Amino acid sequence: MLVMKELDMNLRNYLQSHKLTWKEVIKITQDIICALLRIHEENIIHKNLHSRNILFLKYKDQWQIGDLGFCGPSDKSLGNIYGTLPYLAPEVITEREHNFSSDIYSLGMLMWEISSRYPPFANYEHGDCNFINDIINDMRPEIIPGTPLEYKELMKQCWDADPMKRPNIFILKDKINEMMNKVQQTADDYTNINLMNDCSVNSINRSFNSKVHDVVDLCEQRNIIKEHIQAYKCIQVFQTIL
């Protein structure tokens, strides 16, 4: 049985006020993966992973996952999606169904956020039709320079457009543990991150709220890279239900 306790700070607020080394980035990611492992072992899909649901337990010096059990209103039809759009996997939007792999996609977005200190897609209007289509068409945040290769590759695997190509939580645990063991032994590749300045990070005030989204007539999912997204037909009507 998973039991939540009172926790001290969420990850979004922490990232706004702390500069990190790669060792710290990997340690936070390791904590989140271990917490998600415990959730998946209980046959639970979180469905709403984002940085405000990642909470620090001070007395354990450990990050935990909050909002357990908030899987979306039970009285909503399959035409509705519950979650925070920048972290939602493309198939959740197109197929209106969460699964273990969609949690892994959200984890990939969290990995990027931890390394950059920015919420994903902070400069986009999240209710905009084009933004939703960009997610479906495999738009991903730009990976920051200097990201260690192992971390970058694991992150890209997590947010792969094909859910079948994403690693499961057990593989992720092994990979992040290997990475943590390496960072304990070598410091050369794990120095301070080339972070954005504090002013630009702290100036982000966009609210990332979990909502029920009614999505109709979505564009077909395509696995193309961000740099080659040019023009495409928007055949989507998007409404947000507060």
UniProtKB/TrEMBL annotation:
InterPro entries xref list: Kinase-like_dom_sf (IPR011009), Prot_kinase_dom (IPR000719), Ser-Thr/Tyr_kinase_cat_dom (IPR001245), Ser/Thr_Kinases-Pseudokinases (IPR051681)
Record domain Protein kinase: where: 1-180
Signal peptide residue numbers: none
Single GO term (MF): protein serine/threonine kinase activity
Superkingdom per UniProt: Eukaryota
PANTHER family with a match to the protein in the record: SERINE/THREONINE-PROTEIN KINASE TNNI3K-RELATED
Protein name: Protein kinase domain-containing protein
Species annotation: Rhizophagus irregularis (strain DAOM 181602 / DAOM 197198 / MUCL 43194)
